[in-house]
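Just scan this pair:

***
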Amino acid sequence: MSTEDRSNKKDTSLPKEPIDIILNPLTRFLHVESASGIVLFLATAIALILANSPAGDTFISFWETKIGFVFGSLEMKLSIQHWINDLLMAIFFFVIGLEVKRELVIGELSDLKRASLPIAAALGGMIAPAAIYLTLQSGSPGESGWGIPMATDIAFVVGCMAILGSRIPNSFRVLILSIAIADDIGAILVIAIGYTAQLDLYALLWGMFGIIAFVGLMKIGVRNTFVFVVVALFVWYQIYSSGIHATIAGVIIGFLTPLESWVSENRLNKIVQNTMKFLQGEGWQSSGERYQMLRQMERATRKSISPLQRFETDLHPWVSFLIMPIFALANAGVIIQTAYFTDPIAMAIIAGLFIGKPFGIFLFSFLSVKIGIAKLPQGIGWGGIVGGGFLAGIGFTMALFIAGLALEGTLLDAAKVGILVGSILSAIVGVVLLRIILPDRLITKNSGH
């Protein structure tokens, strides 16, 4: 590259600031997919250590501290843990809604032929764990926790696949992530249908009105993000008041977020070209016109990215590196007692995650391939499906979330231990099994020369 080329390249980049020395490595870390799993693991470890330390009672009681607000006749005071689980996690579910919509419209789940295998696998990976749990807990106080072992934690699964490095072919990675996305759809339905106690139809009607208003504002061309945030908060509050878990509001808003950009690439190119012509002519001397032209180009550039892509990209680091770790700190802390390891609820969850997940995923995948509605991805055998099934047994975040809805007291503490043990066993066996089954593609490639 010539000196002139390097100079031109340098001129097109943004100015450097001293703070970039700190921010650039942090930004690179945040863009490593497996990093979120590491942060989540550390938050979980901290919660467990603190809960079982001399300061354990203080740590646990902190999350039970009630905070809130009073606005006229409206009073809303919840524990810190409830604010995290009901409001912050609504943002988490909003991002899940965005991801699911993208996959259903333009992703792996948009093509029925490609989607049939992950959908069948996810279905088996939900039915088998729930069936095992209910078999072991039928008629007992913990029966309502049947949805706990049905979920898969994407962050930890991605982290485990990162450990395996070049052994993971892209087709396998896409399959496992597609199963996890389909699994999320099932978890959303489980939360909405299985864990709604009493329904306030009046609040639900107001929530539906907010959803209609959200769609109507989009239809008439409102583009102000703040307006939509206000409407989304209104929907969240009404869904919360209705008795349906408030996080479902996040999923609904995610599904309603447009996938299409407001400004097409062709229009953006024309606006940029017109602006450049203006700046290269005499017009740049007029500060007012120059401001208007640059503002129009700035707005067009921003609106050329679809709202779904923008929110998913912008919120993903916040969800992965802030909301999920905070959720783990608030929910993973449990005073571990040896009796919990043999508690029937813990054993049922361990069996559901460690046995039910791989069994259900393998069985339904096998049946879907044999009857001809699906086929295995290239380079993936049945051993890989079993290994992936074990990885899907890592049910940490969503499992803890559902456990908090289904159980309380010592039942919830035992469930948390079961989730931790079942997820750890699934991760270890999944990684070891895939390391044995899948060849190191880097070595294979090099040996072929």
Residues 409-437 form the longest helix (29 residues).
